[in-house]
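Troubleshooting log. The previous run stalled partway through. Resubmitting the same two chains, unchanged.
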Amino acid sequence: MPEPDPFDARVRAAVHGFADQAQTSVDAAATAAEAIRRGQAGRHTWLGHTVPVPISILIVLVLLVPAVAVSIGVGAAWYQQGRVLPVAVPSPTPSLTPTPSPLPSPLPSPDGEGDEAVAGAEVVTVSTSPAETVVGDVTRQRDGVVATRASMNDFRVDGNGTWQFSADLRSGTGPAWGPYQLETTAGAWEGTCTGSLWADGAGGTRSCWLVGSGDYDGYTYYVSATWSDKRGDVRGVIYPGSPPAP
Amino acid sequence: MRTRMILALAAAGMLAAACASGATQAPSTAPTPAPSVTAAPSQSAPPSDPTAAPTATPVQQTDGEGDEVVVGKLENATVTKEYTEQQVGDVLQYRDGLLTGAQTMNDPRVTGSAQWEINLDLYTKAARQWGAYTLTNDGGSWAGSCTGGAWADEPSKGPGNFAWGCWLTGSGDYEGYTFYQTVIREAYGDAIVHGMIYKGAPPTA
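Second attempt completed without errors. Output:
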């Protein structure tokens, strides 16, 4: 072993000053052998093949990769597009007041000539509140006005209507009646409706026999409407004749 | 040490994946469908034959007293008297037919056996219709008339679809009461009834 230079001699003395018997000499051959042994100990084998890491880590990675992929995929914005996530909606409170049943889709648009079955929807709005008098347990409503906007599959009955109604209501429910007029672009329909109101008029039904004028002269339009919360279903027929005799 | 860190990260990753997947699962509380009256369409339908299968969804029952708003269906129509048919000008006239059926409502006072008369003037596909109507059960009966329109979606099936309005007055336990109903049948399917029972007479207007 060569004689250390003066610097090494001072370092050796300093180390010996901190730790008695400290070994400061280096055996290069022993150090190299130890390094080779450690390198061999870091290698792993699986099914006869050498792998760089322990097999347990490989298994964890195999499980982790698809899990992360699913997580990213499901949470991604593109996956959410077009999906409506269900929202917890409270069950509607049962009510004695029937709402219009989900009738089948309106009939196809007819040719607007001759006799036809017609279907559509309407918006119902009280435009003039009726005068009210109470007689016993009945509230008499007189001369109220309901405005209707009918969107029908036949242009001959597609238009704005006015029902001047009267009703006798007990606890908000009772019969209703009055003249009705429906204006359209090429003519009008006039006649009388009878029916019922409930929930103080929030819902109701009416059946009307209407006689045409203008382009609809000589025709009759029978309309049956049921509504709730201002919106209703309308069904009826148009034909070239008069209403049935009472 | 490094192995333990990788295992911890893997567990965290799988937990995050599970949470993300769970975020899109449906809550257990689903909307409750609205009550409705449904029935299967009939295969063959004479005029005003509201045949329908008894598959109604339950509707909340009333207490069967006083004024009530009611809903239900008319089904199992059977011709008890054949109607006559006669072509008069452009109109095919059906006269004096009689049908019976079962009316099932959410109020026992208007649930029972129905009978109605068929009078109908058919143009080409639409018609005016009118006739007497009675509804009978153990408590009494309701009698009056219906008017309305009828139509044929398919010429071979006849004008078996209709929309009626009926004013009926009670007798027996229903004396002094009126039952107003609208009955609508479409696509040879359901005959759905909406109506109202109230104390008093029909309007005179």
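Takeaways: The radius of gyration of chain B is 26 Å. Residues 5-54 of chain B have pLDDT under 50 and may be disordered.
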